[in-house]
Amino acid sequence: MNRRQLLVSGAALGALGVLPVRSAFAADRIDVFTSSDSNVSDWIANSVKPAFEAANPDLTINIVITRGAGGGGLAAIADRAFAAFQQKADPQVDFFEGFNELNPKGAIEAGLWTKFDESNLPSYGKVNKLGIETAYGLPYRGSQVLLAYDSTKVKEAPTTWEALTAWIKANPGQFIYNRPDKGGSGQNFVKRAIHEANGRDPSLFTVANFSKESADKMLPGAWKILSDLAPSLYDNGAYTAGNTPTLQLLANGAVSMVPAWSDQALQGLAQGVLPPTIKLVQLQDLALCGGFTHVTIPTNAAHQAGALKFAEFLLSEAVQTSVLKDLGGFPGVDWSNLPADLRTQYADVIPASIPTFPSGDWETAMVDGWYRNVAPNVNRG
What we know:
Strand content: 5-15%
Oligomer: single chain
């Protein structure tokens, strides 16, 4: 089970292996493709779609789920859209929910993706600048790893890496994280140790600058930090096999603090899966890693104007509030655009930064190095 599926009930909408065929009777239909987890697709279908259609009676949303479908999911749909663009044809898709605009390779340069600005999205100025990677991807919701803790046992939660590691050593057996190849909460804890060992400068790590020599130079400092913490972890150095079992140990009182995904923890609290005594906090010297989910719209979409209306709707206060309260995510707009009571309620988890760490070779080196140097006796199976 992934990090979101634990806390969300209800049947998934299912994987649609057959692409929709446009007809003359669907001129006002916006085809929205998503491969996000079922809680997100259910939220779009049951909350966002009816609200948008009520506000725009001339438009309808058709949700197409590629999660689990053959042929590569959204990547295959984007490849098809790019091919259609080159042939000046209808891509049979209007809107991508949760796709990296840097793909397919060369698509931005060729003109496939719509460039977002205030001329086509009046609310674009409200978007959280931390989430904007390019003008061709619209960040509308986010998620980040933070610290979840039992407030009956932890009276003053740490807000810096130094304070966190000091707390772990002063409270042996009360902290645990999952193996970095088994879930993002533990993986991002390991990444935070890497950032700490390299001057808290995430910009030192990019997809393009990996080399074995760089990894051999920049990663050992993190292995020293994490090896030093290992004897103070739960069960003298145990590691869980995923995000969910980590939170379960916190919920049943076996440990007092863990790294956790913001959306999973917030939903767990809202649904009563986590007890109300569980509180959340983010490190303020350099936050734990996270990221945003982007919207992309092909320039050759048959219903581009309607797709832009839908993108604008996602930035509305009502939807952004729902992202936080109902979906358990972080808003895509700057927090200053949310109601004051919500900003107060979530003050401890509002990030001052959203660091990232590259996938690919850097991530592989991180996982391999962790097993070899921090947990050599842990079975990778």
